[in-house]
């Protein structure tokens, strides 16, 4: 039953994303069969996959490598649920994927990156591409090999032309946004020395805060993810040398030591974090937060006060990013999870604005160094009339979320 509900969630999310798409193109899947011999496989042992749209004109030697999101699995039970879905097996993935927003090939919808080589790495390991466990239990046949997948896909892209890259941007959404932070310097190290390499995280800045009951369940959860996937050796050593590996899954503990330029796109009211970190179901047995979780407009005054305090904690967690122009941020007050993949929030006539800038313009200005002021933080909710909201009840789908 739980596996069925998970598949229903995946289908629902796919449908919701399609509704948000405005213009773009379908891109076929590429299966990395050669990765199997390297042990770089999805949870079920199937080969990893990606979608690749070739660049044109002046963008022929520029690359965007975007990592798909989809939560995490923290133990054998939750990973088995994922194993039978597109989040755990390339056998379940769509043959084509829609590229929009940051991945759009239309100049007036994606002016700075439309003609780049654009890649979307499919997410099928459940550990933000950090896991690496050699032994496979024959009882469950689960493979925890996310770190190998990342390297195997990058190696294939290098062979397909990325070895000639002049500019390269590693990006991702949600769990993929976290991966773009954790793998930022690794990505830079894998590319030619002369390449300009930068990283972009969308809705991947998950914070280590207490929930409404006073417990730090996200800290415990991330610790379980890291232990299950054997992730410690693929997390930044500068962090694991001073903190427990589970804490090094939080961007706030690693971001200050990342060498490559990095940009954070996030809302200070991320509904995923509100639903799963601040007010998870286990901390809300009476269900008093369910309406607020789904629609911030339905929060009671007391609940809104707690949500505003979460924003304060979120902004504090961003402080290690520092103030360098090479470290940008676009932190709006919208109630939405992921904003770079869909046209309406990336670049559109009604896209969210900060200082009269869309997310697309802010990221482009940062990447091309057109501005010395690359850090934009919105006022508190409900101040921004340009905001979009699009949420789902993540707590109904165990096996993907907390």
From TrEMBL:
Residues in the signal sequence: 1-24
Entry EC number(s): 3.1.1.-
Major place of residence: secreted
Keywords: Cell wall, Cell wall biogenesis/degradation, Hydrolase, Secreted, Signal
Pfam families assigned: PAE (PF03283)
Keyword Hydrolase: yes
Leading EC class: hydrolase
Location(s), subcellular: Secreted, Cell wall
UniProt KW 4Fe-4S keyword: no
Cellular-component GO terms for this entry: plant-type cell wall
One example of a Gene Ontology biological process annotation: cell wall organization
GO molecular function: pectin acetylesterase activity
Family, similarity comment: Belongs to the pectinacetylesterase family.
Described function: Hydrolyzes acetyl esters in homogalacturonan regions of pectin. In type I primary cell wall, galacturonic acid residues of pectin can be acetylated at the O-2 and O-3 positions. Decreasing the degree of acetylation of pectin gels in vitro alters their physical properties.
PANTHER family with a match to the protein in the record: NOTUM-RELATED, PECTIN ACETYLESTERASE
Record's protein name: Pectin acetylesterase
């Amino acid at each position: 039953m739980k596996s069925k509900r998970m598949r229903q969630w995946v289908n629902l999310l796919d449908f919701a994303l399609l509704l948000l798409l405005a213009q773009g193109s379908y891109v076929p899947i590429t299966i990395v069969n050669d990765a199997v011999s390297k042990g770089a496989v999805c949870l079920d042992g199937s080969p990893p996959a990606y979608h690749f749209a070739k660049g044109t004109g002046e963008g022929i030697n520029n690359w965007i490598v975007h990592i798909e999101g989809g939560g995490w699995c923290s133990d054998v039970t939750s990973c088995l649920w994922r194993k039978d879905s597109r989040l755990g097996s390339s056998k379940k993935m769509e043959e084509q994927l829609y590229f929009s927003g940051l991945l759009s090939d239309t100049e007036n919808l994606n002016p700075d990156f439309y003609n780049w080589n654009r890649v979307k790495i499919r997410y099928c390991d459940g550990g933000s591409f950090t896991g690496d466990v050699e032994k496979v239990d024959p009882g469950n046949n689960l493979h925890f090999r996310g770190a190998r997948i990342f390297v195997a896909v990058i190696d294939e892209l290098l062979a397909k032309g990325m070895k000639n890259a002049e500019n390269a941007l590693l990006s991702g959404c949600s769990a993929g946004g976290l991966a773009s932070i954790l793998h930022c310097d690794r990505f830079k190290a894998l590319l030619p020395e002369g390449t300009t390499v930068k990283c972009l995280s969308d809705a991947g800045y998950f914070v280590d805060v207490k929930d409404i009951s006073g417990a730090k369940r996200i800290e415990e959860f991330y610790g379980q993810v890291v232990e299950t996937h054997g992730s410690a050796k693929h997390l930044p050593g500068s962090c694991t040398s001073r903190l427990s590996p589970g804490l090094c899954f939080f961007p706030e503990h690693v971001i200050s030591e990342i060498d490559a330029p990095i940009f954070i796109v996030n809302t200070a009211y991320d509904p995923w974090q509100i639903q799963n970190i601040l007010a998870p179901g286990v901390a809300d047995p009476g269900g008093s937060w369910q309406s607020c979780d789904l629609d911030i407009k339905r929060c009671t005054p007391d609940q809104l006060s707690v949500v505003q305090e979460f924003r304060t904690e979120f902004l504090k967690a961003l402080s290690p990013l520092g103030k360098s122009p090479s470290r940008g941020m676009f932190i709006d007050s919208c109630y939405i999870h992921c904003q770079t993949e869909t046209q309406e929030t990336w670049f559109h006539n009604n896209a969210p604005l900060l200082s009269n800038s869309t997310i697309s313009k802010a990221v482009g200005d940062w990447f091309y160094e057109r501005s010395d002021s690359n850090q934009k933080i919105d006022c508190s909710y409900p101040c921004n009339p340009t905001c979009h909201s699009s949420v789902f009840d993540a707590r109904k789908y165990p096996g993907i979320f907390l």
